[in-house]
């Protein structure tokens, strides 16, 4: 999910983008018609100067800007702002950090991550209030950038809009704001360092306890744990 920080508040400006975590600290984005809409918007803003994308974490000669043929190029530079700039707690005002790599009209552009099994479970079991398609569109897309990305495409994205609405409603019900992984507002904030295997297992156990009242969520967390152990074995072979 791509977020925009206005003041101290992070607001999603996209629907969910799909990808696979590669167990090495990055997400490999999946290409589809929806990611194409997001990429086109940001590249249009990049061309007109509204969107600034410059990776300050590398030497100037090695900085790779986003390109129109690669959603991954956009995700990569957003990840730099999320993990290495003052937007997160590890590299905040008291910890140094790089200049943000991605700014939209002066606002930080960062990402939030939700495991696919958890996203799917929420969108299946936690339903947003019944609204018309137009009303749900207005509820989900509150930022002007969102409306520019999706205007004219809502009818093609009904299922994704419904999923976003369900996740929004679930987070609101739990008092969890949208935020990047390093934010102190995250239930399980990341330090952006390499995590030991037992640390990940501890997070999973904590999440199981936090959601013990929701068997379907515990099942999703268990699936995340199974995937983690499988990928860990594959890396060691």
Question: What can you see in these coordinates?
Answer:
The structure is a single chain. The protein has 237 residues and is α+β, with helices and mostly antiparallel strands. It has two domains: 2-192, no CATH class; 195-237. The protein is built from eight helices and seven strands, in the order ββββαβαββαααααα. A five-stranded antiparallel sheet has the order 2-1-7-6-5. A two-stranded antiparallel ribbon has the order 3-4. The two termini are 32 Å apart. 30% of the residues are buried. The mean pLDDT is 88.
Please write out the topology:
Blueprint: E1 2-6, E2 9-12, E3 19-21, E4 27-29, H1 33-47, E5 51-53, H2 71-84, E6 102-104, E7 107-111, H3 116-125, H4 133-140, H5 144-150, H6 158-174, H7 197-210, H8 215-236
What would the keywords be for this entry?
237 residues, alpha+beta, two-stranded antiparallel ribbon, 8 helices, 45% helix
Q: What does the overall shape look like? A: globular
Fraction of residues in β-strands? 5-15%
Structural class comes to alpha+beta
The figure for the number of domains is 2
Q: What is the radius of gyration computed over CA atoms, rounded to a whole number of angstroms? A: 18 Å
Strand order of the largest sheet: 2-1-7-6-5
Q: Provide the succession of SSEs.
A: EEEEHEHEEHHHHHH
Query: Into which percent range does the helicity of residues fall?
Result: 40-55%
Contiguous helical run count: 8
Query: Overall pLDDT, averaged?
Result: 88
Distance between the termini: 32 Å
Uncertain regions spanning at least 5 consecutive residues: none
The description of the largest β-sheet is: 5 strands, antiparallel
The count of DSSP E runs of length 2 or more, i.e. the number of strands, is 7
């Amino acid at each position: 999910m791509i977020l925009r920080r206005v003041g101290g508040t992070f607001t999603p400006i996209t629907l969910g983008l799909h990808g696979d975590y590669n167990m090495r600290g990055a997400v490999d984005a999946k290409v589809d018609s929806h990611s194409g809409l997001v990429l086109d918007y940001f590249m249009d803003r990049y061309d007109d100067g509204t969107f600034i994308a410059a990776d300050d974490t590398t030497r100037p000669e090695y900085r790779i800007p986003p390109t129109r043929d690669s959603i991954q190029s956009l995700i990569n530079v957003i990840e730099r702002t999320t993990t290495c700039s003052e937007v997160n707690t590890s590299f905040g005002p008291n910890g140094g950090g790089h200049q943000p790599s991605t700014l939209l009209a002066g606002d930080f552009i960062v990402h939030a991550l939700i495991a696919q099994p958890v996203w799917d479970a929420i969108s299946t079991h936690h339903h947003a209030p019944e609204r018309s398609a137009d009303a749900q569109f207005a509820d989900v897309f509150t930022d002007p950038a969102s409306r520019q990305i999706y205007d004219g495409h809502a009818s093609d994205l009904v299922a994704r809009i419904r999923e976003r609405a369900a996740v929004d409603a679930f987070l609101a019900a739990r008092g969890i704001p949208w935020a990047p992984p390093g934010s102190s507002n995250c239930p399980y904030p990341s330090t952006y360092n390499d995590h030991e295997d037992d640390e990940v297992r501890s997070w999973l156990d904590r999440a199981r306890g936090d959601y013990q009242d929701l068997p379907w969520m515990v099942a999703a967390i268990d699936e995340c744990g199974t995937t983690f152990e499988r990928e860990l074995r594959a890396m060691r072979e």
